[in-house]
Amino acid sequence: MDNPRLSGSVRRVTVVQRDPAGGTTSTVVYKRARNKKKGSKIFKAAEKATRRIMKAQEKTADRYLERHQKSNRKKKDGWLKDLTVNTIKANRSGTKELKLKRMLDY
Q1: Which pTM value belongs to this model?
Q2: What is the mean pLDDT of residues 1-13?
Q3: Most exposed of 18, 57, 65, 68 (fewest Cβ within 10 Å)?
């Protein structure tokens, strides 16, 4: 019997039939194969922390570039005049994204 075309969320299709004695028997028609996990349990926390750090750095860089361009539009050599303020605000934004308290809970 060919596998039926089912949605990806379907894990199993079971047919339940009543036997002559009045009981029920179930037959599994389709069972989705389980995907092999690609990562080790040991490194799960390290991977999560690394991913969170990279996202925070990306947010910091994006935020700084936005502020840099805004400063340049407002005044001549504005990026240089606002360098410290822009850097501090961008770092604050990245720190919020990092959620350091949640990382330390591991």
Answers
A1: 0.61
A2: 78
A3: 18
